[in-house]
Amino acid sequence: MSIPVVTTIELQSLPKLTSGKVRDLYEIDDKTLLFVTTDRISAYDVIMANGVPQKGAILTQLTAHWFKVLGERIPGLKTHFISLTPPPSVSDEDKSLIRGRSMQVRKLKVFPIEAIVRGYITGSAWNEYQKTGTVHGIPQPAGLQQCSPFPKPLYTPSTKAELGDHDENISPEKAAEIVGDKYAARIEELALKVYSTAAEYAREHGIIIADTKFEFGLDEETDDIVLIDEVLTPDSSRFWPASEYEVGRDQDSFDKQFLRNWLTKEGLKAKDGVEMPQELAEATSARYKEAFKLLTGKTLEEALGEL
Ligand SMILES: Nc1ncnc2c1ncn2[C@@H]1O[C@H](COP(=O)(O)OP(=O)(O)O)[C@@H](O)[C@H]1O
Ligand SMILES: [Mg+2]
């Protein structure tokens, strides 16, 4: 029996708070959310009409794995993670709709910036560097090649756009204006720490994390900065197979590259409501699962079997 691809979910037993491009957030109580990841996929900031088989479960289980690894390696790290099991208030029927793809999390005030960290120069950063020698306006040493590592990982925040808008690159100074000086330095420091810890772990598992995006929230009772959202998935990061890595050329990544290439070739980049060919959706799913297996040491089926 094939597993259904789920792009829309309407749970009956909990109120829905909001929907993002990929996730639906339900309210469990005033401190707790049920964070439900669908199989929706976005590229160039628009959502495809059809989904990627099992993507919601892959992202949920991978994020949970990272919370465990990071918690072990970074003393005092706070995350929003509570449990992979839905609360008793969710009906059995609803439970079957969200199997493997839901997480109970602490509901927090979200800092409205994307904390991007780049370990290697690629994508828009490479394009900017070739023109101006800078990345997000920050001067870089001469002589970097495509996909070279930066001398040190770089914090390059962006705004967090409302649904339908595009994120905008900003300087760390502008980020400090948005979140306040009090929190900006702590967010930067934490983002760099989480990146370097994860990059080291991933390298031990055959993956280079070229760059990634984190989100942070504030625990208003304790004033703690908390790692929230999805973390270190192929949606939020560029993962490269370490065994094939070579400086001076583009890398074959574990993410939506197939989809982006196809959209560009078909002239469908950033168009609404595009339906991907089934083989493309399946190839993307297979690629995401490969990254999952390398990073967790388990197949997705094994991880789901443990729930
Ligand atoms: N612990 C949390 N409390 C409140 N909001 C959260 C928490 N973790 C993540 N979020 C928000 O939930 C949304 C996740 O849905 P997603 O589909 O990924 O959205 P987006 O389209 O913005 O990427 C994001 O807007 C994110 O900021
Ligand atoms: Mg998101």
Please provide a written account of the structure:
The structure is a single chain. Helix content is 33%, strand content 24%. The protein is α+β, with helices and mostly antiparallel strands. It has 2 domains: 120 residues, Phosphorylase Kinase, domain 1 (2-Layer Sandwich), CATH 3.30.200.20; 144 residues, D-amino Acid Aminotransferase, Chain A, domain 1, CATH 3.30.470. The strands form 4 sheets. Strands 8, 9, 12, 13, 14, 15 and 16 form a 7-stranded antiparallel sheet that branches. Helix 1 packs across helix 5 and helix 1 packs parallel to helix 7. The model has no long low-confidence stretch (mean pLDDT 95). Bound molecules: adenosine-5'-diphosphate and magnesium ion. Magnesium ion (MG) binds next to loops. It holds the Pfam family SAICAR_synt.
Q: Beta-strand percentage?
A: 15-25%
**What distance lies between the first and last C-alpha atoms, to the nearest angstrom?**
20 Å
* CATH architecture title of the largest domain: 2-Layer Sandwich
Identify the CATH homologous superfamily of the largest domain.
ATP-grasp fold, B domain
Return the CATH topology of the largest domain.
Answer: D-amino Acid Aminotransferase, Chain A, domain 1
When the domains are counted, the total is: 2
Computed CA radius of gyration, to the nearest angstrom: 19 Å
Morphology call: globular
The main β sheet shows up as:
7 strands, antiparallel
Q: Unreliable stretches, pLDDT < 50, 5 or more residues?
A: none
The chain-level mean pLDDT equals 95
The small-molecule ligands in this entry are: adenosine-5'-diphosphate, magnesium ion
Counting DSSP H or I runs of 4 or more residues, the number of helices is 8
Helix content: 25-40%
